[in-house]
Amino acid sequence: MPTVNMNVNGEAVSGEVESRTLLVQFLRETLRLTGTHVGCDTSQCGACVVHVNGVSAKSCTMLAVQCEGADVTTIEGLADGDALHPMQEAFRDNHGLQCGFCTPGMIMSALDLANRNSAPSEQEVRDWLEGNICRCTGYHNIVKSIMAGARAMAAGQGG
Amino acid sequence: MHDFTYHAAGSVADAAAKVAGGEDAVLMAGGMTLLPTLKQRLAQPSDVVDLAAVAELRGIQVSGGAVTVGAMTVHDAVANSSEVAAAIPALADVAGHIGDPQVRNRGTIGGSIANNDPAADYPAALVGLGATVCTDRREIAADDFFTGMFETALDEGEIVTAVRFPAPETAAYVKFPNPASRYAIVGVFVARTAGGVRVAVTGAAGCVYRETAMEAALEGNFSAAALEGMTASADDLNEDIHASAEYRAHLVGVMARRAVAACG
Amino acid sequence: MPKDGIGASVKRKEDYRFITGQGAYTDDIDRPGQTYAVFVRSPHAHARIASVDTSAAAAMPGVVKILTGADYAADGLGGLPCGWQVTGKDGPMVEPPHPPLAADRVRHVGDQLAVVIANSAAEARDAAEAVAVEYEPLAAAASIDAALSPGAPQVHDEAPGNLCYDWELGDKADVDAAFAGAHHVTRVELVNNRLVPNAMEPRAAVAEYDRATREYTLYTTSQNPHVIRLLMGAFVLQLPEHRLRVVAPDVGGGFGSKIFHYAEEAILTWAAGKVARPIKWTAERAESFVTDAHGRDHVTVAELALDADGKFLGLKVDTRANMGAYLSTFAPCVPTYLYATLLAGQYTTPKIWCGVQAVFTHTVPVDAYRGAGRPEATFVVERIVETAAHEMGIDPAELRRRNFVPPDAFPYQTPVALVYDSGDYEGTLAAALADADYNGFAARRTEAEARGKLRGIGLSAYIEACGIAPSAVVGSLGARAGLYECGEVRVHPTGSVTFFTGTHSHGQGHETTFAQIIAERLGVDIDAVEVVHGDTSKIPFGMGTYGSRSLAVGGSALSRALDKVETKAKRIAAHLMEASEADIEFADGQFTVAGTDKSVGFGDVALTAYVPHNYPIEELEPGLDETAYYDPANFTFPAGCHVCEVEIDPDTGAVEIVNFAASDDFGNVINPMIVEGQVHGGIVQGVGQALLEGCVYGDDGQLATGSYMDYTMPRADDVPSFTVSTRTTPCPHNPLGAKGCGEAGAIAAPAAVMNAVHHALASRGVSRIDMPATPARVWQALNA
User: Fold this and answer.
1) For the residues B136-154, what does the mean pLDDT come to?
2) If contacts are CB pairs under 8 Å, which of residues 69-108 in chain A contact chain B?
3) Are C415 and C539 in the same domain?
């Protein structure tokens, strides 16, 4: 079985996998990082979004072996100890989650947007979320959360 | 998915050798179609040869009025390239509306055209712009490259290395997405080029094709008005739970007019 | 009042674990020695199982056990039970057997007939493909029409003509008489499209058996773990409650689909005893599409009789409802007691008749989905009222006003069995119209026309019956369970509080809402309150969460338990302050003796209860831990008005929602932020039904919309932001005055959207378009 080495949330990890092992399976089953979820099998729901080398990717549509040497960030890697990431904070402040299942993928996707666009409009946020499905919130408060989170991130960098 | 042997290719030649060496080997570009297919156990390759580490296949070059996009260049890179935006803004626009952001972060032009999904966006851009597909063996005109549903002119083991787009005088792409999958129910790429007007249609039929009647109408009068009342022929168009052939035929006309209007 | 008490938009206590990836959903649970299950499922809608050969599969790597329908039958265990018996005109409904593993016949695509258990999920999947099943395919009846047509393939031998029941409510002759005097009759034909619930967390289960204690534990994605324990233990596997623990941990959305007792739960638990190792099963999304109970699927013809002034004289509704291939847990009551009883809507319609035929088909079972019966009723009432208004040339808002149950008429007895508790329908109508700028619509339509767009506005003045109860009433209507709720308030010695509730939170925010009530009542900090749900080993009992019942029923149980805590604490405080119990007052966490400056804090009383050195031990037990069961006196009746405005592109048929305003009366609100979130989510499920979602079966019973590639889930760019507000008439019969808010959006929105779509299309001569109003359908209608 192949061995794969990568950096996950800043830590070097390695593990034996099958070629067919998906990144999300490696994260959830080998590393027990269960914050990344699987909500579909057609690469559409986005519950599995993580960052690979700084940009968002669906971890259900990548093989673990493709991540050899990669930097992977999951939802578990965002908070600094007890200090939440501004995007996490924004989701809580704006009630951007209900059942919480899509939330890790939403937050990771939102971060990729905020990294490119520090002040996205409502329409830009809605367009960006094409690859993330939520069944609970009706998106209203997710959109608010992401706009607020992006602003907070920009303010934090500026200040 | 069924298990297979994974190979990371280091160069185009290495990839070609590894594909040739496998019993039933497949190439993987971004994996945006291949991996979902494998997950659903719709294919069972012996070997998967990953092109991700082949540096020579990545990158965008603009020179001499043409944009050359390396086969492993992801959609996001094309969408956000200021050089592409300056030379062929419609190409950046096509890339920026493929799939979702995560697909655009990993999906590649080479993978998209080699797969030739009948509802994919890039084939319309290639045909609409009269692009040239470069492989490790030869160059193929876009008009000859897309041969049928999920079929191309590529030979066994032939690897797409780049796509060269001549800059048009003006061009635009407008699509009407499938509400569920967000692939194109109908997408029309219209370009006015030195060699004439080209109208390429994706999503409507089994393979991207050119609406020659619309091209002729636009040749003398490049305006939406020139296409007034025109539709595609519904014969041989796709029919599914989302759209009838008749509706698709109508949408070809609507999207074509909108694309012409967007050309400005 | 504490800052985090009733009425405050407190940030949710549960969010921290979800936004940091620490939620614990069923698939996140790994047990030592765990195996993995994959089910073998029918690819046919209807077939006889000629043979099942597991020998090749059993020899595959990692396979632990393979069990078939024949194995299950050999153990002499039960079938999946139906929890509600409807009695029709001709007697009790037909209730065919529902084996959890099919042995002889499969009746829908996805029907399970064997389970493969292996050391890894991939090995189980590989082996499941190697189970050789020989099917003899049979003709299928995949729709209501097909199933009711003469000579249709029979789903069950027990149900001739595929009829489950033929039921009616009201006196048809009486209603016909009302129609005889009508000035105008409006008739509509409606399809309430079949939906797939699609909670984002696929169903999953982990079962294990402890040989030492002979106890079974099932972790499952459930909205009501006690109900699963009752149904699975008593009816299916014949396991007594004390040896069966059911845990529903964090659950990623339910919307009804996780109420029901599913075959996989029973089979995993049964198999865990056989393999003596834990077994995990997690549905793939494709599997969810063919096994999660679907929702809606009605075909209806309705007629409304009006007098010359637009007063409603009578309503006749004839509905056929699809049950699918088997009766799911609560399926029979959805198109009857949760549907026909709501057909009065917000109106004084004096005569109503409703007939319902429930039909078996070779499709996935259909059961309650967010709203369950009430969205279907609202769609009938609000589509026909709006249609009547346009036909008679009366403004739709005005026609509603002329027929509203007036605010002074409560309690109001409808002709369809319910007694409405309270309401102010003109109030919510007025608020929604104001927020929607109803009066400015004509100008906006003119402006849209100039851009080549068709603009329409539609109303939906809905009512729902929530907090379903009382138990005695539902029992008389065929429910095989009580519908009370249980809560235990455990005050700890240092004054912190754990609340154990029989409801279950899978997105609703109970950990916050219930904590707010406790903080308010006991004067403790909200961070000193923990809410526990979802574990039958911790919670005394419970009926779970559905029907917008958690606050109205579960919150009332909490309120009653808090009453008991307060009563006992007052007696302890009276003893400590050497005062008469009658003189003790309690506010903001302090017990005081009226008219004096004597006081003692709640924390001191709690400590005294557990360290009873100075204590009235002769009269009072130590401890401060109280349980209450609350069985409501009536349903609650949330109501309101939603207004939708759409713009249609006639060239493509695309419908865009350009504005949506909602005014809802949920009774007293504990946390406005959470309530608004529930409304937003419900509206988008309603918009999804109206414009995007529709489950399509081919005539052969194959599901054409079996993934997100073909089943359109609402996405962020399909909807706008919404304007939502609440107006309150408190529920008069429960201690919190709460009515419930979880389903309103899904109930109200479809009619509002479709009324707007029809309004927009009317100028082009289109009179009927069915849900979902996809671009293709709209274009087809415009070009018919």
Assistant:
1) 98
2) none
3) no
CATH number of A3-77: 3.10.20.30
Amino acid at B158: E
C440 and C302 housed in the same domain? yes
**Residue B96 corresponds to which tokens in the numbers above?**
């920026």
Cβ-contact C115, C64 below 8 angstroms: no
Q: Is residue C19 part of a domain?
A: no
How confident is residue C2, by pLDDT bands cut at 50, 70 and 90? low
Domain range for C497? 484-630
The SS3 call for residue C218 is strand
Q: How many domains does chain B have?
A: 3
Residues B181 and B255 in one domain: yes
Residue that finishes a domain, picked among C630, C657, C681? C630
Tokens of C449: 């026309």
Cα dihedral C584, C589, C595, C599, rounded to 10, equals: 90
**Which of B136, B166, B196 is the last residue before a domain boundary?**
B166
Indicate the DSSP class of residue C342: G
Mean pLDDT of C665-675: 98
Question: What are the pLDDT digits (tens) for B90-142?
Answer: 999 999 999 999 999 999 999 999 999 999 999 999 999 999 999 999 999 99
* Structure confidence at residue C236 (pLDDT): 97
- The full set of domain ranges for chain A reads 3-77, 86-158
Using alpha carbons, list the distances in angstroms from residue C736 to C81, C356, C393, C630, C669: 34, 36, 43, 12, 9
DSSP per residue, C381-450: HHHHHHHHHHHHT--HHHHHHHHBPPGGG-SEE-TTS-EE----HHHHHHHHHHHTTGGGHHHHHHHHHH
Size of interface A-B (CB pairs under 8 A): 73
Same domain, B44 and B71: no
DSSP state of C633: S
For testing the chain B interface, which of A130, A132, A133, A146 should be mutated: the one with the most B CBs within 10 Å? A130
Q: How far is CA C492 from CA B230, C528, C603, C670, in A?
A: 78, 10, 9, 24
Residue C558 lies in a domain: yes
Confidence at residue C609, expressed as pLDDT on a 0 to 100 scale: 98
Q: How far apart are CA C399 and CA C390, in angstroms?
A: 10
Of B37, B40, B76, B44, whose CA–CA distance to B60 is shortest? B76
pTM (2 decimals)?
0.97
Tell me if chain B has a CB within 8 Å of the CB of A42.
yes
Coil, strand or helix at C664: strand
We report the CATH number of the domain holding residue B185 as: 3.30.390.50
CA distances from C522 to B88, C374, C493 (A): 68, 37, 14
- The number of folded domains in chain C is 3
CB proximity A47 to C under 8 Å: yes
Task: Please return the burial class of C408, using the count of CB atoms within 10 Å of its CB with bins 0-12, 13-18 and 19+.
Answer: exposed
Token duo for residue A9:
């949330």
Of C614, C586, C580, C612, give the one whose Cα is nearest residue C599.
Answer: C586
CB count in 10 Å sphere of residue B236: 11
Q: Is the CB of B2 less than 8 angstroms away from the CB of C713? A: no
- Residue range(s) defining the domain that contains residue B180: 170-263
Q: Does B103 touch chain C (CB under 8 A)?
A: no
Residues B138 and B204 in one domain: no
| CA C159 to each of CA C152, C330, C334, C536, C587: distance values in angstroms, whole numbers, following the listed order | 12, 19, 19, 37, 61
C-alpha Rg value of chain A to the nearest Å: 15
Does any CB of chain C come closer than 8 Å to the CB of residue B180?
yes
